[in-house]
Amino acid sequence: MNIVALRPGLSPARVWWLAARPATLAASVSPVLVGTAVAAHQGGARLLPGLAALVVAVAMQLGVNYANDYSDFVRGADTPRRVGPVRAAASGVVAPGRVRAAAFACFGVAALVGTGLSLATDWRLLIAGVLAVAAGWLYTGGPRPYGYAGLGEVFVFVFFGLLATVGTAYVQELRLSPLAVAGGCAMGFLACAILVVNNLRDIATDAEAGKRTLAVRLGPRRTRSLLVALLGAALLCAPAAFGLGLAGRFVLLPLLLLVQVGGVIRLSAATDPKLLVTALKRTAELEIWYALIWTIGVLA
Description:
Elements: H1 12-19, H2 26-41, H3 47-74, H4 96-121, H5 125-138, H6 152-173, H7 178-201, H8 203-208, H9 214-218, H10 220-243, H11 258-268, H12 273-299
Helix pairs in contact: 2-3, 2-6, 2-7, 2-12, 3-4, 3-5, 3-6, 4-5, 5-6, 6-7, 7-10, 7-12, 10-11, 11-12
């Protein structure tokens, strides 16, 4: 275990906020927005189920972030060489046990609200909820964390892309929607891009700690190629939805983000970890903008 040097004037509240990784919250809010837009487009949007889906998504994201913070500290992956936001457990300000408790509390909120939402709509969603919470903890926790085996992107695509988007639309209109699947794929690709940029920045320190993320396995060059593929696939989801007749021509509006995509790709080519931190923020912003523009396009 390593205690990193804490920057002067950094309060416990600030440490908790940074450990929540606010940049990654786009991966929880954006799919709910996209799924709600799909439900509204098809005449089935409902306020309370939509809000409940948002609470579940944000609580899950926070739970995963705090669980990752705790588990990486325990496994020695957070070293003084790491560049990026301060981690709570490694900061020396917050006890690691409190970080673990925060993760469980967030998962508990997600489970409680998700259970109520499932019972009010479709009890079968309880199965998906149990799998999501288990996957959230086992990402870097447990005896064989799959995040350390290069499978984190699979979890992110399924749970923070497809399930979050399609599930949000489903609890409001109570039917599966191909348009929601298209939006869910776009959100999944972008959420994976956030993770890929994050892991690209940490390749050296993760490899040193034995954390065999997909980026560590692929190496910097192929990881950057993967990022380009993910961003391109996200953009292509819009014309795919239009070409399949799932929505009108305004669903093509996310293609306007091509310039921002190019900016992320250029930043990701940097070798300076601090520039990769900026790339991470820009990728998160890209997902938010995609969700907003998709919503406008679907509802236009």
